[in-house]
C-alpha cells in the first residue's frame, strides 16, 4: 500500500485548536484537489457511529485529551489507502499531535513533503473557539476544555514543529490575518512543492 501512496505529496497541517487548520484545508482542497483527512473529523465520525469504540473516544475528546496513537494512525492510514488511486496529495490535518505520532506515521506510511504551521495567538484561538462553540455542537468547544486543549498543544504539539524545522520542511503561516490573506501565504508554500 505504501507503494500506491508513494507518488502523492503528504502535507502535515499543524497548529493550535481553533488556529484555522480546517478552514485553510477546505480552500486547499478547492484549489488543488488534495484529499483532506482531519484526524478530529475521523474520530468524530467514529463517535457518531455510536460504536463501543466511539463511546470511549468521546470520553477522551470531551476532556481535551489525546486518543491513543494507534487508533488515530490506523484511521488515517485506512482513509489514505481508500483514496490512493485518485489522490494527488494528502492534507493530514491535526496530526501529528506529538513527536511520537510523526515518527510512527513515517514508519508506517511515509515522509511529509511539507508541514504547514498554522500560527495564531492563544487569545485569538480561544476567541475563535468560543465563537465556533455557539454553533459547532462540539463537546470540546467549551471554556474548560479549550483551556486544556491549548495547554496540551503547547506541551505536546509545539515540539513537533521544532522536530520538522530541523528538516527544513516547515512553513509558518500567520493565521491572524483574514482567511483569504492567510490562504495567499498557504498557496505560496504549496506552489513551492512543484
Ligand atoms: N483567518 C481567520 N480569521 C478569522 N476567523 C478564522 C480564521 N480562520 C479560521 N477562523 C474561524 O476560527 C474558527 C476555527 O477555525 P477552524 O478552521 O475550525 O480551526 P481548527 O481546525 O484549527 O480548529 C472557525 O470558526 C473559523 O471560521
Ligand atoms: N492526532 C491525534 N491524536 C490524538 N488525538 C487526537 C488527534 N487528532 C484529534 N484528536 C482528538 C483530541 C482532540 O482534542 C480532538 C479534536 O481534534 P481536532 O478536531 O483536530 O481539533 P481542532 O481542529 O480544534 O484542533 O480529537
Ligand atoms: Mg479542525
TrEMBL record:
Region called LID, residue ranges: 131-141
Residue numbers binding ATP: 18-23, 132, 177
NMPbind as annotated region, ranges: 38-67
Catalytic reaction(s) noted: CDP + GTP = CTP + GDP; GTP + UDP = UTP + GDP; dCDP + GTP = dCTP + GDP; a ribonucleoside 5'-phosphate + ATP = a ribonucleoside 5'-diphosphate + ADP
Enzyme nomenclature, EC number: 2.7.4.3, 2.7.4.6
Kinase among keywords: yes
A Gene Ontology BP annotation from the UniProt entry: ATP metabolic process
Subcellular location: Cytoplasm
Pfam families: ADK (PF00406)
GO MF annotation list: AMP kinase activity; ATP binding; nucleoside diphosphate kinase activity
Annotated keywords: ATP-binding, Cytoplasm, Kinase, Nucleotide-binding, Transferase
Top EC group: transferase
Homology family: Belongs to the adenylate kinase family. AK1 subfamily.
Function: Catalyzes the reversible transfer of the terminal phosphate group between ATP and AMP. Also displays broad nucleoside diphosphate kinase activity. Plays an important role in cellular energy homeostasis and in adenine nucleotide metabolism. Also catalyzes at a very low rate the synthesis of thiamine triphosphate (ThTP) from thiamine diphosphate (ThDP) and ADP.
Entry remark concerning the domains of this protein: Consists of three domains, a large central CORE domain and two small peripheral domains, NMPbind and LID, which undergo movements during catalysis. The LID domain closes over the site of phosphoryl transfer upon ATP binding. Assembling and dissambling the active center during each catalytic cycle provides an effective means to prevent ATP hydrolysis.
PANTHER family named in the record: NUCLEOTIDE KINASE (PTHR23359)
Record-given protein name: Adenylate kinase isoenzyme 1
